[in-house]
Each structure stands twice: as C-alpha cells, then as structure tokens.
Amino acid sequence: MRIDIITVLPELLRSPFEASILKRAIDKGLVSIHMHNLRAFATNSYNQIDDYQFGGGAGMVMMIEPIDKCISKLKSERNYDEVIYMTPDGETLNQGIANQISLKENIIILCGHYKGVDQRVRDHFITREISVGDYVLSGGELAAAIVCDAVIRLIPGVLGNETSALTDSFQDDLLAPPIYTRPSEYKGWKVPDILLSGHTSKIEAWREAEAHKRTEKLRPDLLEE
C-alpha cells in the first residue's frame, strides 16, 4: 500500500512512522508513506495556501489551486483508489472503514487546516471524508496518523500474529455550511452568488439553511438530539 499525505506541517507527522508497528511495516516494504508539503505548490513567493473566506467570517480557508496542483501531480504518476479529506464533519472512523481502506492499493490523505478547505476541493477532488470524532483539532495531521495506524495494522504481515487484527474491538449541534475563497470561479466551478452579494443577513440565512441541510444529510442524529 502507498499512502500520500498532503500537509502544511509534515514535521508533525514524521514521528508516528519512525517507531513501533508503523515503522516495522515500512521496513518490511508492506507500506510506503510519502508526505507532500502543500506550500511547495503555492502560486506566489509568499508560499500562500490560505485566504479569507467569501461572505466574511472568522478564520482562513485553504485555497483550491495549491491543492489541485498537488493532487493532479500525484494522479499523473499513478491511479488512486481514494482521496480522503480529514474533517470533523466526515463519517466517523470505525473498524469497518479501516477494514475497507486497508484493501486499497494507493490512497491520498489531505490534512485540513485553519477553517477548512474551499468547498470546491470537497466537491471535485475528495472521494471520502473521515472524522476521528466530534471535536476539532488544530489540523488534520494527527487525525491522518490515526487513520494510517488503524489501516496499516490490518495489512497482512504487519502484525506478528496474522489473526490479531481480526479479534480487535470497536458547539451548536449543526455541521458547518459550505465555505469558499478566491478565486470566485475556477475551472468553471463558481462560488454561490449569495456569498458575493455583500448582503450580510441574506448570507447568514443561506449559511443557516445550508448547515441544516448538511446536518440532516450527514448527521441526522444531531438534529434528533
């Protein structure tokens, strides 16, 4: 298995793969881990990979272009079974998901940062969104390490006992609405007009409606509570 991790802080990710079971799996050639610093794909001399969000609001948003360039480069070199985005509003990681991913050959994991990524990244590049729980981390690196650990240990030959993995156990209540940043149009993919209107009250109403729709679709249990 090959795992490509797109990150802003590759140094935060190195240590989990330099010890214990994960290192053993790498040394055996059962898995290869490749980290890609997203700033290397920035389009200006400041290595900028984030910008303010359209419509106003606190928090910066990871821009679509550097992410597109990185993912496109990787895809030009090989086929990928999954492009995974680590996000608090993804499906909650469980053993079944880990089992599914362990059967893949090549995967990309995108680590979120700041307020998140431009929604168009999620719409057009991501095949699966995974969360490690209903809480927010400073970035997706630690979450990505959790996914890697849960998945790699399931690969045949990683654990000393081949049957060991088979016996393992298992603020506002709305999800965030879609978010966007510059450019307002990219490859024909446009930011919703309402976010460019400057009408704060209408923007807030749109966001609330979208938050309800997303929560109803992805986490209806939150609405029941």
Please, could you describe this protein's structure?
The protein is of the alpha/beta class and 225 residues long. The protein has 2 domains: 2-167, SPOUT methyltransferase, trefoil knot domain (Alpha/beta knot, 3-Layer(aba) Sandwich), CATH 3.40.1280; 185-224. 34% of the residues lie in helices and 19% in strands. It contains 8 helices and 9 strands. A 5-stranded parallel sheet has the order 2-1-6-5-7. Strand 5 (82-92), helix 4 and strand 6 form a beta-alpha-beta unit. It is globular and about 60 Å long.
Describe this protein with a few key phrases.
Alpha/beta knot, 8 helices, alpha/beta, 2 domains, 9 strands, 225 residues
